[in-house]
Amino acid sequence: MLIKRFARSDDASSPNAGRRRALRAGASTLVLALTGTRLAFANTIVAVRVWPARDYTRVTLETDNPIKFQQQLMASPNRFVIDLDEVDLSPALRDLVSKIQPNDPQIMQVRVGQFKPGVVRMVFDLKAGVKPQSFTLPPVAGYKYRTVFDLYPAVEPDPLMELLANSGHKAEALAQNTPPAQPSRPSSGNGTPSTEESEAFFQRYARREAGPRALRPAPPAAGDRMPSLAQRNDDGLLTPPSRAPKTARLLTIALDPGHGGEDPGAIGSSGTYEKVVVLQIAKRLREKIDAQPNMRVMMTRDADFFVPLGVRVQKARRVDADLFMSIHADAFTSPSANGASVFALSERGATSATARLLEKTQNASDLIGGVNIKTHDRAVAHALLDMSTTAQIRDSKVFGTALLAEIGTVADRLHSKYVEQAAFAVLKAPDIPSVLVETAFISNPKEEQALNDPAYQERLANALLKGIKAYFAKNPPLAKNRTA
């Protein structure tokens, strides 16, 4: 039987060899063309940013298009592995290694490499266990697509426990400090008390002496004997009975430096970031409050990282704050706008066009800063509900009026001499007098320069402290048990 030799497609003796070579060359050209197309449309890493903080560390990848990724949390040792699809190892990704700081609370180091064609692997070596959250954000406010990796510590820090740990010694000193108090004249009238009257009140309060001021009665604790009846002094004000135990506690102030992390806030013409200057002012005010024998402070953020609006409210309520102050720097389309202002919550809409514009920009902070909506804690979301009360708004306006009186002695002018109102999400703690302070217009070149001046920041912090004291002098705090 004659067996014919099998003709290979590349056999030159085959009668169809030329045609097959032409088809194969065409196919190769098509494959190369498709490969070139894929590489042309590969996702481009525009920027990589890292925001380390005690609360959590955020790693943000900014890209031209949304990217797909797979992640895996590993133990022994603790690692967080991320594979980025259709991504090439770019200089921006390589630079991620240098962005990990030695003092990062969560990340020890990161390794980045081309795992296989079209896949880049990032391996984060962790200092301890974490609870990662990953999500993608659409373009907003100058950002392109952002893929966010939030690394929360396995045991999240409790602001109440931290506050008690940092102020326990002060609470003990206040409880044991019983020198005789010097008598002082009470404030007359219903206006804001003078600085001298405020200081006199705080001297009495720090020495556990009520002085001749009126008292707001507090119900006795379970098991305590009912105190003897209070008596009225010559002015008709209630005074404590001689045998009743005198109570003093630390006053808790929640300071909220606006924006942070991915959210820079307003940017001045010289490049000043609002998030930077308001944090500097808040830290100065924190030092002054901590120096008071009967006050303590909790900051919603003490570094450059983003805190969602609801979490800011939640933190203030967690520490049972007596007052909440959110610190910002205003901005407007015209550089001539100037002056400081104070805002309280409104249930009926903004009280002016400026307040309405500010309400819109400030409430958009979550969109810019980046919030994982899918895993947003229900308690946090609940804090953003409109739970405001008439009493909270009333007390907030009184607090704001006291602040304006003091800020007016430092700022060149007030943008509004009255407390304005708007529906700010960050002011919706139903049981805490809350205000938002716009320290100046960062869009005004002169005021931008002042906001960067340490001397001006110091004077402003002093004014804010005096406003806090003036409010308490006119509105003595009620007894509390949870954080005393």
Automatic annotation (TrEMBL):
One of its GO terms (biological process) is cell wall organization. Residues 313-469 form the MurNAc-LAA domain. It is an enzyme of class 3 (hydrolase). It is found in: Periplasm. InterPro entries: AMIN_dom, MurNAc-LAA_cat, N-acetylmuramoyl_amidase_3. Residues 175-195 have a biased composition (Polar residues). Belongs to the N-acetylmuramoyl-L-alanine amidase 3 family. This is N-acetylmuramoyl-L-alanine amidase AmiC. It comes from Pandoraea terrigena.
